[in-house]
Specification:
With about 475 residues, the protein is of the alpha+beta class. The chain contains 19 helices and 23 strands. Bound molecules: iron/sulfur cluster. Its EC number is 2.4.2.14.
């Protein structure tokens, strides 16, 4: 069997999700539902919680937004206990099946185990094929189940050693939270590409894991620290223990979390996301100034950068596009048709701001270009005299294999078109992207060189820091 056959059998591998876990708090499931609510932007197709009351596990999962799955207090009441882990799922087309919704739960000889994971394994198909050959029966198409089977077949005696055995076999970008009968475990991949933070609740001292700090804020928990790249943090009745099973290999945190994915009120790896986005806008204004009357963000992720651009340029910031917040994010809806529909449903032009004006539009990225084109058309239809587009990421020219859904290279506008062709296709008077130096200056470095080796920016550079085992054909037919 070839790699591509395996891949298509298990569905597209890309997913970006939110994870949350709490240990030692009464009403853990209610806290987990709140945490998921704060992480809703990371996945909107399904949500799940597994709780434990020191006797047995309970679970509830469903398709839809957190409010739809856990909005009823009676549902939370079916999840007793002082420990819970939770997951928001985003999946591409075809894979939104209830059996794929996390956390995944399994009974082992050592007891029950629930696992929730965010990211993507780059050797999932390879491992899956080997596991299937050994007789493992997969119930879902998620990478998470690979962890579960690796733990199941491990020859180590206790669950922690089995988990370490499993993470040593996987390759990829992931954060993972696991719940056992007597502990909660949080871990990050050896390069820390995907985020995971540790927090603690004042008063009862309950420990919390979450993808982003905004999930601590909603429950009043305090930020303790980022889980380190390659670190396994174990929490149980004996307190907290840190295990580092990998040789130190630095950090390659996903720079796109700052540009688009994370919530602006989160702090990731010590950098407030809002400040980073605003500073990117300042850098954009310095590098690609143009005469205009208004700076208009494409809401919501373009807002802080547009504020930075306006502050630096002295051009007024105006809400020339109004977003309807009751529609899911365009970027993570599954088909072109829905995506296009989503833009019309989601954004409206504010004619009072745009008519007769020279407009600078600030957006976070251009992926396929279809969304940008529609927004520009809408702004022109509302009477804008000129439209200049400024983008707070470098051109996206490669797909992400580490957990952010991006189309293949041939569908990425910047991979297949020159700057002038893109400008023409999108229909703007001028187009500019943040430079690499500007991006990294916004994150506090002198220039790109100074940040070299600290971040993953592979979708802009093609410099993939983790080997792409499945893609590069390590799988033997
Ligand atoms: S390839 Fe891009 S989106 Fe993917 S982890 Fe790297 S920086 Fe993030």
């Amino acid at each position: 069997m070839t790699v591509s056959q395996v891949s298509s059998d298990i569905g597209r591998p890309y997913e970006e999700c939110g994870v949350f876990g709490v240990w030692g708090a009464p009403d853990a499931a209610a806290l987990a539902a709140l945490g998921l609510h704060a992480l809703q932007h990371r996945g909107q197709e399904a949500a799940g919680i597994v709780s434990h009351d020191r006797e047995r596990f309970y679970q509830h999962k469903g398709l839809g937004l957190v409010g739809e799955v856990f909005g009823d207090q009676r549902t939370i009441a079916t999840l007793p206990g002082d420990a819970a882990i939770a997951h928001n799922r985003y999946a591409t087309t075809g894979a939104t099946l209830l059996r794929n919704v996390q956390p995944l739960y399994a009974d082992f000889e050592f007891g029950g185990l629930a696992v929730a994971h965010n990211g993507n394994l780059t050797n999932a198909a390879t491992l899956r094929q080997a596991l299937v050959r050994r007789g493992c029966l997969f119930q879902s198409t998620t990478d998470t189940e690979v962890f579960v089977h690796l733990i199941a077949i491990s020859l180590y005696a206790n669950v922690l050693d089995r988990l370490i055995d499993a993470v040593k076999q996987v390759k990829g970008a992931y954060s993972l939270i696991a719940l056992t009968e007597d502990g909660m475990v949080g871990l990050r991949d050896p390069l820390g590409v995907r985020p995971l933070i540790l927090g603690r609740m004042p008063g009862n001292g309950a420990w919390v894991f979450a993808s982003e700090t905004c999930a601590l804020d909603i429950i009043g928990a305090e930020f303790v620290r980022d889980v380190e790249p390659g670190e396994i943090v174990v929490i149980n009745a004996g307190g907290l223990r840190s295990i580092k099973p990998f040789a130190e290999s630095g950090s390659r945190f996903c720079v796109f979390e700052y540009i688009y994915f994370a919530r602006p009120d989160s702090v990731l790896e010590g950098h407030p996301v809002y400040q980073a986005r605003k500073q990117i806008g300042i850098e954009l204004a310095r590098a690609s100034a143009v005469d205009a009357d208004v700076v208009v963000p494409v809401p919501d992720s373009g807002v802080p950068s547009a504020m930075g651009y306006a502050a630096e340029s002295g051009i007024p910031f105006e809400l020339g596009i109004i977003r309807n917040h009751y529609v899911g994010r365009t970027f993570i809806e599954p088909t072109d048709q829905i995506r296009n529909l989503g833009v019309r449903m989601k954004h409206s032009a504010n004619r009072a701001v745009l008519e007769g004006q020279r407009v600078i539009l600030v957006d976070d990225s251009i992926v396929r270009g279809t969304t940008s084109r529609k927004i520009v058309d809408m702004v022109r239809a509302a009477g804008a005299r000129e439209v200049h587009m400024r983008i707070s990421s470098p051109p996206t020219i490669h797909p992400c294999f580490y957990g952010i859904d991006t189309p293949e290279e041939s569908k990425l506008l910047a991979a297949t078109h020159s700057m002038e062709q893109m400008r023409e296709l999108i229909g703007v008077d001028s187009l500019a992207f943040i430079s690499f130096d500007g991006l990294y200056r916004a994150l506090g470095y002198e220039n790109r060189g100074a940040a070299q080796g600290h971040y993953c920016d592979a979708c802009f550079t093609g410099d993939y820091p983790i080997s792409l085992v499945d893609r590069d054909g390590a799988l033997v037919a």
